[in-house]
Amino acid sequence: MTKLVLKVKGMHCASCSTLIDKLIGKQEGVLSIKTNYGAEKTAIEFDETRITLEKVDELLHKLGYDLIRPNEALNVEDEEKKEARKTDEARRRAIAAFVLSAPIIAYYMLIHMFNLKHVHELYGIDLNYLYWILSTPIQFIIAWPFYRNTFTAIRVGSANMDVLVVLGTSAAYFYSAVGFLFFNIDHPFWESSAALLFFIILGRYFEAVSRGRASVAIKELLKLEAKEAHVLRGGQEATVPIDQIQKGETVVVRPGEKIPVDGVILEGKTHIDEKVVTGESFPVGKTVGDEVIGATVNQEGLIKFKATKVGKETLLYQIISMVEEAQATRAPIQNLVDKISESFVPAVVVLSIVTFVVWYFVFAFPFNAALRFMIAVLVISCPCAMGLATPTALIVGIGRAARFGIILKGGEALEKAYKIQAIAFDKTGTLTIGKPVVTDFIPIHFPENEALMYSAAIETGSEHPLARAVIEKAKNANINLPQVQNVQAMAGLGISGSVNGKMVAVGNAAFMQSLGIDTAGHMPEVEKLQNQAKTVVFASIDKRLMAVIAMADTLKPFAREAIQALKNMGKEIVMITGDNPKTAEAIAKEIGVDRVLAQVLPRQKAEVIKKIQQEGKTVAMVGDGINDSPALAQADVGIAVGSGTDVAVQTGQVVLVKDDLRDVVTAIQLSGKTIRKVWQNLFWAFAYNVVAIPIAAGFHLFFTTQILTAQTFLPAAWTHGLKNYGGIGNMLFSFTQSTLRPEIAGFAMAFSSVSVVTNSLLLRRYVPPMEKESQ
C-alpha cells in the first residue's frame, strides 16, 4: 500500500479537483484520493500491484493536468522560479488583454455614461472593424487556455468554470461578428466579450498571487534548511552538501551557524534558537546528550554532535510532510460544497438557456437583449468562490499553526478542535515534567542503603518515570546495583523480580496487598505524604515490608497559565492519573482542574475518555503521543504534547512539537478562527451566487418595474415607466441597466474568488496570546 502527497499542475478552477477525484478515484487499485485545488496537491493512497503511479500520471495527463512525481520535485528555489514564471505569464496575458480591450471599454463607457450616440465611422472607417480586430486576439489567443480546458472537460464528460466562460464569451463574440458581417446589426457586443475576458484574466492573475501567499508556509519551512555542513571524516573536517551527511557521522557547528540535521550532542554546550521549527520563543540551553534539531541556529559555543536523522527523516521534513498532507486534505464541510459544485455548471447552463427563452419568447425582448441576459448568467456564476472557500482557509490556518510548532493533521482536526467542551490531560509527563525525584525514603527494618540498593535494583527492569527517580537516588548515593532476574512488571501496579536470590517488589498498596503484604500500619504516614501531592510506593523483600518511598513531580512551566486560559474559554478540565485520589486532588487543586479521575490504569484511559463522551461532550485528550495512543485515538481530538523530533509516530490529530501546554490554547483558538473564516467564505460565496445570478437573469427588473409602474411587464414599461418617476426612477433605471452588462458580470465573478482568498489571508495576522505578551 502506497500513500503519497503529490503536486498537481494545471488545475485552474475548483471543479478540477472534483474531476480528478471522481475519475482517478474509480480506477481499480486506487483506495482513496483527495485533491485540493487551493494547495495544488493530491493525497492518493493506492495499491502498486494493481495500478502504478505512471498510470495515474498518464490518466491525469489525458485530463490536461501534470502530476509532479517525487523524483521530479524541485527544490524550493527552482519551484519559486517556476511559480514566478507562471505568475509573470498570467500578468503579461492580463496586460495584453487590457491593452487590446481598453479602447473598446473606454468608447462604450463614454457612450453609456454621457448618453451619447454611437459613432459608427471615423475618417470614413467603420469602427466595428477596429473593434473586431482588437477583440479577436483576446478571444482566441490570450483566452486560448479557456478553450483548451473546456475541450478537455467536455472530452471526459465534465464541466467546469471555463465551460461557462467559453460559452458566454463565444456567444457574445460570434453574435457580434456574424451580426456585423451579415445582418448589419446596430450594436455588436465587442465590449462584452473583450472586457469580460480581460476582467476574468485579471481576476485569475490576482487569484494566483493570493493563492501563492496562502501556501507560503511550506516554502518558508523549506528555506530554513542549511545548505552545507562541516563533517569529521578521517580525522579531518570537511565541508559537504547537506544531502551527503550520513547517519552516525560527527558534525561540527560553530556559533551563528545552522544545525544541518537532527542529532545528539557529543561535545560542547550552547544555546540554540529553535523558534523557526518549534515556535519556542527563547533560546534553549543544550549540553552533552541533548537532542539538536536541523535548521535551528547555534547561538554560542562550538558543538560536535552525532547525526541521528538525515534527509527526509529530520524533524523539519517530517513537519513539512505532515503539513503538506494536511493541506491536501479536506474538511468534512467540503464534501457538501463539492457535491453542489459538481452540479453547479450544468445547472447554470440550463438556467442561462431558460433565461434567454423567457426574455425572448415570453416577454418578446429583442434578440440581442435576451442574449445579453443569457451571457450575463453564464459568466456571473462562480463555482470557484465556493470551491476556494474551504481549502484556502485551511491552507493558511494549517500553515500558520506550523509557524508556531503546531501540526494540525488535516481539515477534520481543525473542524473538531474548536467544538471541544472537555479536555482531559494525562498527569505524568503532560501536566508535570515527568521526571519525579525521591523526596522521602523511609526504611523499615532494614538499613537505608541496603533498602535503597534492593529497591533501585528491581526498578532497573522498569521504564516508568518513578522507577528512574529511585535509580537516580541510588546513583547519587554511589550505590552499585546488582543484577536482576525474572522481572515481572504489572502496568499501573508495580514490579517484582529476583535480586541476589531474594524476591523484591516495588509498587502501590494494591500491589502489596495482591502479594499478601500488610501496609495498614503505615497508612497514616502515607496519607500525610499524599496530602503533600506526593506519590507513595512501597518496597518489600521476601514478602516483608522494606521501605516507604515518596516521590514528587513538579508542574511544567505555564501549566497553570494554560489551564486557566482554557477554563476562561469555557472548557471543562479533566485530569487522568494512576496516582491515588489524595495526591491527585492535591495537584488538581494547585492548578485548578475541574474533575479528577485517579487510579486509572494505562489500559483504562481510553475507556475513561469514552465515558466522558457518553455524557454528550466533545472531548480532547492531551497526552504522550505514544504511551497514550489508545486514549488519543478514542478522543474526538487527540493532542500529542512535546513530541520533539518524533512527530511522525504520534497518534494525535494535533501534534505539539514543543513542550508548552499553552500551545493547546493556540491550537483551539486557531481552529476556531480558521473554521470561522471557512463559514465566512462559504456565506459570501453562496450569497454572491444567490444574489448575482437572479440579477444577471434580469429578475430584479421585473420586480422594480412592477413596484414603480404598476403596469403589466412589457419592454416599454421598464424603458419608459422607470424614467417617468424622476430622480429615484432614473437612479434605479441606471442601476438595473448597468447590472445587466456581461462585462460587469465578468468583473464581479472574477473578483468573488479573489475576495475569498483575501479573506482567508487575514488568518496570517493571528498571533498566539503568549506571543502578544512577549512583544
Helix residue percentage = 40-55%
- Number of DSSP strands? 28
User: What structural class do the secondary elements suggest?
Assistant: alpha+beta
Radius of gyration, whole Å: 35 Å
Could you tell me the mean pLDDT? 81
Distance between the terminal alpha carbons, to the nearest Å? 48 Å
| Number of helical segments with 4 or more residues | 29
Are there runs of 5+ residues with pLDDT below 50, and where? Answer: 707-740
Shape: elongated
Strand order of the largest sheet: 16-28-27-26-17-24-25
Largest sheet: 7 strands, mixed
What portion of residues belong to β-strands?
Answer: 15-25%
Describe this entry's structure for a reader.
This protein is an alpha+beta fold and 775 residues long. The chain contains 29 helices and 28 strands. The protein has a 7-stranded mixed sheet with strand order 16-28-27-26-17-24-25, sandwiched between helices. A 6-stranded antiparallel sheet has the order 8-7-9-15-10-13, with no helix packed on it. A hairpin with a 2-residue loop joins strand 5 (121-122) and strand 6 (125-126). Helix 5 packs across helix 6 and helix 10 (315-328) packs antiparallel against helix 13. The chain is elongated, with a radius of gyration of 35 Å. The chain starts with a strand and ends with a helix.
